[in-house]
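Support request from a user on the community tier.

User writes: "When I paste my structure tokens into the form, the page sometimes reloads and wipes my input. The last time it worked, I copied everything first. Here is what I submitted, just in case something in the input itself triggers the reload:"
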């Protein structure tokens, strides 16, 4: 398997505080890789730096063999690295249709955009029902579906999902994780950040455990799910 994303010795600081300390991770083509850890461990900071929203203090980020740590966010999206952000961040006054259009704003391959739109509406039938409804009037679960669908409209080679199950009812959490598996079946590689460690380890191939800005453990997701230290810290065991 070839590495789609390689992060080496990444350091990210907020002022004088180092939030991410020498983090290294790899995502290979076709994988679901998850980054788990408690609140404030540096998970979202790592993801935001990969997608160009934050600038690293040190280290390198390579996507498809090309350094991206100096690039702007929109340049990174254009390369096929799209993020569904924590807290959904949909445009509340715009309809589902308009939110999806914005997801594809860097593209001009009209037929492929329409094909992708059809794909995401098949993946999330609820969005088809709400197609002309304003995003802000939808439930939390529907907004989360829209955030993921909007990211997919950018034609990602790598999809970054930041806390997709946050604040959702258990039945919707199951649905979101089932959908993550389906997205991978469409040939999209996924880097998943998630506080619900049990659900994340269940769908992922490999996992990294982040603690206070450092990678504490990594390995096959199924092995980590059985690990005593992981069970105690993150799986309520």
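"...and here is what came back when it finally went through:"
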């Amino acid at each position: 398997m070839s590495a789609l994303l390689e992060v080496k010795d990444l350091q990210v600081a907020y002022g004088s505080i180092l939030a991410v300390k020498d983090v290294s991770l790899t995502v290979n083509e076709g994988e679901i890789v998850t980054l788990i850890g408690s609140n404030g461990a540096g998970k979202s900071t790592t993801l935001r730096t990969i997608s160009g929203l934050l600038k690293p203090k040190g280290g390198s980020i390579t996507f498809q063999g090309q350094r991206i740590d100096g690039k702007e966010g929109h340049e990174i999206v254009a390369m096929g690295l799209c993020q569904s952000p924590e807290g959904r961040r949909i445009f509340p006054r715009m309809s589902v249709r308009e939110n999806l259009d914005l997801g594809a704003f860097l593209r001009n391959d009209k037929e492929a955009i329409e094909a992708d739109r059809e794909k995401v509406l098949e993946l999330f039938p609820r969005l088809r029902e709400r197609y002309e409804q304003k995003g802000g009037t939808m439930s939390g679960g529907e907004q989360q579906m829209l955030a993921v669908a909007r990211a997919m409209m950018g034609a990602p080679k790598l999809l970054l999902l930041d806390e997709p199950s946050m604040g959702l009812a258990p039945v919707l959490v199951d649905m979101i994780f089932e959908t993550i598996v389906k997205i991978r079946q469409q040939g999209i590689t996924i880097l998943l950040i998630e506080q619900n460690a049990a659900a994340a380890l269940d769908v992922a191939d490999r996992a990294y455990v982040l603690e206070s800005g450092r990678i504490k453990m990594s390995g096959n997701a199924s092995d980590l799910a059985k690990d005593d230290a992981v069970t105690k810290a993150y799986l309520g065991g």
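Agent notes: The reload is a front-end session timeout and is unrelated to the input. The chain has a mean pLDDT of 89. The longest helix spans residues 170-185. Escalated to web team.
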